Automatic annotation (TrEMBL):
PROSITE patterns: GLFV_DEHYDROGENASE (PS00074). GO terms for biological process: L-glutamate catabolic process. Keywords: NAD, Nucleotide-binding, Oxidoreductase. This is Glutamate dehydrogenase. Substrate binds at residues 79, 103, 357. GO terms for molecular function: glutamate dehydrogenase (NAD+) activity; nucleotide binding. Residues 192-421 form the Glutamate/phenylalanine/leucine/valine/L-tryptophan dehydrogenase C-terminal domain. The active site is at residue 115. Gene3D superfamilies: Leucine Dehydrogenase, chain A, domain 1 (3.40.50.10860), NAD(P)-binding Rossmann-like Domain (3.40.50.720). The gene is gudB. CDD domains: NAD_bind_1_Glu_DH.
């Protein structure tokens, strides 16, 4: 059970690791596992902290701190993105790694979860400084990663160029070409068709499934998207193309709102490589105001802890699909569930990214590349099945979708740990 003392404490915990551990504990209890399984799964089995010296363009040297967390490798090699962000913390990277285990479990991919992060602000670094940082990070973690050990990918403020440098650095260290070391690569370096859009495609499929069960017609539905980067930008475009009206979008600096619908193609054209677009406008709203806009579907696609007990009661959306990892706190999840809002959690909603990363890795291993249609069809099949499994678990057990997703997601790893004789 979730510890009520934790829920009732005067300050809501925004520590994403603690929040995740509480749901993991409850999910394992409901599945009939004992305390020993929780002890094993509540933290990553491996956590590496690295210090990365980087020669800056002005000739000085800056030392950056980075992390790589590998949550559990009982099912197979670990997998998960790398985040470059000033707010990266050790606990955040650990939670992100646990969420990767859950996503892979829900989608039935042969992986455990991992995640990496570097405390830095790439918006203030030059192209060459970013290259040196990316290569330095791979050098520092090279002992614990590899195509059959732990396979990184993009996340916040990292992209296919950074994946290309990282793949090149790893290939140099290992002295052979290793495209399967990392996913989210450019196409000419072994990337998969559809990977760049896959997170948003997956979110779109989750929205379609959620809209069906909530009885909402996507045509004309009012959609608000927080974050206008890889996940949020493509998602806004897919929603617009599906006939929905995207009335609000935002980035790290603020939001844009038009009740008649925003011109998404125009905004995508004007956006910079960090998903920033609002700096071009004077008439902006805050991210908090954006989340509380009157709409049918809300998609947080930026960072953690955006919907908390402070604003959960003010959210007007009927459906929330989490494209971001960890955008809604545990308390907010409960408030929204009690209010009848259908919340599709991150570990299901944004699993499209890792699913197509898995396809990329399979294609690298086979040396045989698929058409985009094949990628899209396989993605749809996995996501629809995943959504239905989680939704039916939530309905039959009368629990919220987050707890249901954790139950479905953690089961494979727990079973694999048992079968390997670890517990
Ligand atoms: N890229 C991927 O394949 C996947 C990404 N995700 C998650 O989706 C979310 C967004 O990731 P990406 O789109 O890849 O990142 P991105 O770097 O492409 O874009 C991030 C967006 O969030 C905005 N942002 C940053 N800080 C913010 C803040 N404090 N408040 C409001 N907006 C803020 C940025 O301005 C930008 O528009 C993250 O939670 C990430 O973990 C999840 C699965 C896969
Ligand atoms: O594509 C991947 O392997 C991981 C993507 C990711 O980091 C995530 O789903 O949060």
């Amino acid at each position: 059970m979730i510890n009520q003392a934790d829920i009732n404490q005067s300050t809501e915990t925004l520590n994403v690791l603690k929040q995740t551990q509480m749901v993991i504990k409850e999910a394992l209890q409901k599945l009939g596992y004992g305390e020993d399984m929780f002890e094993l799964l509540k933290e990553p089995v491996r956590m590496l902290t690295v210090r990365i010296p980087v020669r800056m363009d002005d000739g000085s040297t800056r030392v950056f701190t980075g992390y790589r967390a590998q949550h559990n490798d009982a099912v197979g090699p670990t997998k998960g993105g790398i985040r470059f962000h000033p707010d990266v913390t050790e606990d955040e990277v650990k939670a992100l790694a646990i969420w990767m285990t859950l996503k892979c479990g829900i989608a039935q991919l042969p992986y455990g979860g991992a995640k990496g992060g570097i405390i830095c602000d790439p918006r203030e670094m030059s192209f060459r400084e970013l290259e040196r940082l990316s290569r330095g990070y791979v050098h520092a973690i090279s002992q614990i990663v590899g195509p059959n050990k732990d396979i990184p990918a993009p996340d916040v403020y990292t992209n296919s160029q950074i994946m290309a440098w990282m793949m090149d650095e790893y290939s140099r260290i290992r002295e052979f070409d290793s495209p399967g070391f990392i996913t989210g690569k450019p196409l000419v370096l072994g990337g998969s068709l559809g990977r760049d859009r896959s997170t948003a495609r997956g979110v779109t499929i989750a929205i379609q499934e959620a809209a069906k069960v909530a009885g909402i017609d996507l045509k004309g539905a009012r959609v608000v998207v927080q974050g206008f980067g890889n996940a949020g930008g493509y998602l806004a475009k897919f929603m617009h193309d599906a006939g929905a009206v995207v009335i609000g979008v935002s980035d790290a600096y603020g939001g844009l709102y038009d009740p008649k619908g925003l011109d998404i193609d125009y905004l995508l054209d004007r956006r910079d490589s960090f998903g920033t677009v609002t700096k071009l406008y004077k008439n902006t709203i805050t991210n908090r105001e954006l989340l509380e806009l009157d709409c049918d579907i809300l998609v947080p696609a930026a960072v953690e802890n955006q919907i908390t007990r402070e604003n959960a009661a003010n959210i007007k959306a009927k459906i929330i699909v989490e494209a971001a990892n960890g955008p809604t706190t545990l308390e907010a999840t409960k408030i929204l569930h009690d209010r009848g809002v259908l919340l599709v959690p991150d570990v299901l909603g944004n699993a499209g990214g890792v699913i197509v990363s898995y396809f990329e890795w399979v294609q690298n291993n086979q040396g045989l590349y698929w058409a985009e249609e094949e990628v899209d069809n396989k993605l749809r099949e996995i996501l629809v099945r995943s959504f239905r499994t989680v939704y039916e678990t939530a309905q039959s057990r009368r629990i919220d979708m987050r707890l249901a997703a954790y139950m479905v997601g953690v089961r494979r790893t727990a079973e694999a740990c048992k079968l390997r004789g670890w517990l």
